[in-house]
Design a protein that fits this description.
- InterPro entries: BCAA_transport, Leu-bd, Peripla_BP_I.
- There is one protein chain.
- With about 400 residues, the chain is α/β, with parallel strands linked by helices.
- It folds into 2 domains: about 180 residues, Response regulator (Rossmann fold), CATH 3.40.50.2300; about 140 residues, Rossmann fold (3-Layer(aba) Sandwich).
- Helix content is about 35%, strand content about 20%.
- It has 12 helices and 16 strands.
- A hairpin with a 2-residue loop joins strand 15 and strand 16.
- Helix 2 packs parallel to helix 11 and helix 3 runs parallel beside helix 4.
- The chain starts with 18 loop residues before the first helix and ends in an 8-residue tail after the last strand.
- The N terminus is likely disordered.
Length: about 400
């Protein structure tokens, strides 16, 4: 459906046709509207293995797509083993789809295969810089991003990477990935808006849990108080018992893990005597999982995630074009290409300047609003979804603009 935040495929910012639309568009000054109405796919745990398992296949040859004057590098692990290579191919398809759907983009996409290794990333980044790219999209893996950034920073060339590791952001490296910090901030803020002030939390003792812990404590510090907090390893029983004993003084319980683990954690809490029907359950985008929806214990739980309608429509167009379903992260490649195409069209010589990329009003993409922070991380405008037996239903839509 076409609208001020959902233009036709390939269009840039539509012309305002009414005061309402003009006002809405003014809130994202110069921001390209990057996709058509485009949920469905699950966001997998971003803190799984950071490199592909097994040796890569033969390196794919570089590919140039488009004939525009602005050269843009796209670095993906196309020959990486297993799921990494599959994801990279899907992201490459999405990038080419964005180029095809954007009206007369003045960009040429130089697609490079880094094989999923830092050495490969450094090699193809050097090639791309030698060919005159003005911006680099990728790499995908956290270990490869610094290898690229070491070369791009020397030439003041910005990077929009797809890694979820916030520690590698900054100094010209911006992350377009789904960062758990956005999920945490959205669900805590929403919970506070419906009167929840006392929070308990049960998190995994791993890299994902550590990132979520820091964001959760900061967010709750602004909105309420933490009455119980525990982390668990493979054995959840002890942590679950400790939290269960404190739930009487909490009005919200935050469980952040992937679908199967969330169900196991909820079952451990029930076994420890917790009545989870008397407390508001909260989670992150990893709750977008059939195991969660099928759990009787988790019914009515709330989690933050991109509005699913965007990915659903994107998937339909992708399926029509390629005959298969996209991976969930394919929208990142689509939005990155659409963003650089729109900025090339609208912003002239300042198209990739730091002040352009970090426009506080942000940009609208397949998964809703997003903006880059000056430290290279991002903030997303997320919906709040409610767990139901057949899937999930939105209880609060994605914001139409960012606050100050």
């Amino acid at each position: 459906m076409e609208g001020p935040f959902n233009p036709k495929p390939g269009s840039s910012v539509p012309r305002p046709s009414s005061p309402t639309r003009r006002t809405a568009l003014g809130l994202i000054l110069g921001a390209p509207l990057l996709g058509a109405c485009s949920g469905g796919g699950q966001i997998s745990n971003p803190f799984g293995p950071s490199a592909p398992d097994g040796p890569p296949g033969p390196q794919q040859q570089p590919l140039a797509v488009g004939t525009g004057q602005v050269k843009v590098g796209l670095i993906l692990p196309l020959s990486a083993a297993g799921n990494a290579g599959v994801a990279a191919q899907s992201m490459k398809n999405a990038a080419e789809m964005a180029l095809a759907e954007f009206q007369n983009p003045n960009i040429q996409l130089l697609i490079k295969d880094d094989g999923g290794s830092p050495q490969g990333a450094q090699q193809v980044t050097q090639e791309a810089l030698g060919e005159g790219v003005e911006i680099v999209l990728g790499p995908l893996f956290a270990a490869s991003v610094p290898a690229t950034a070491q070369l791009t920073r020397a030439r003041s060339i910005p990077v929009i990477a797809f890694s979820t590791d916030s520690s590698i952001a900054g100094r010209g490296v911006y992350l377009l990935s789904f960062l758990p910090e956005s999920d945490v901030n959205r669900i805590v803020d929403y919970s506070a808006s419906i009167g929840k002030r006392s929070f308990a939390a049960l998190l995994p003792d791993n890299a994902y849990g550590n990132v979520v812990e820091a964001a959760f404590k900061q967010a709750v510090g602004r909105k309420g108080r933490i009455v119980a907090f525990e982390k668990y390893t493979a054995d959840r029983a002890g942590a679950a018992r400790t939290v269960a004993q404190s739930l009487g003084s909490a009005d919200a319980l935050f469980i952040a893990d992937d679908g199967e683990s969330v169900v196991a954690t909820a079952d451990s809490l029930t076994a420890a005597g917790a009545n989870l029907r008397n407390i508001q359950l909260l989670g992150t985008g990893l709750w977008d999982n059939p195991r969660v929806y099928a759990s009787a214990t988790l019914q009515g739980g709330l989690y933050a995630a991109p509005d699913p309608s965007g990915f659903r429509a994107f998937s339909g167009r992708y399926r029509t074009k390629y005959g298969t379903d996209p991976v969930r992260t394919a929208t990142l490649a689509y939005d990155a290409v659409a963003l650089v195409a729109a900025l090339s069209k609208q912003q002239g010589g300042q198209r990739f300047a730091p002040e352009t990329l970090t426009n506080p009003s942000g940009f609208a993409g397949i998964d809703g609003l997003f903006r880059f922070r000056s430290d290279g991380t991002n903030e997303r405008g997320l919906a709040v979804m409610k767990v139901a037996s057949g899937g999930s239903t939105p209880v609060a839509g994605s914001p139409k603009s960012f606050g100050a």
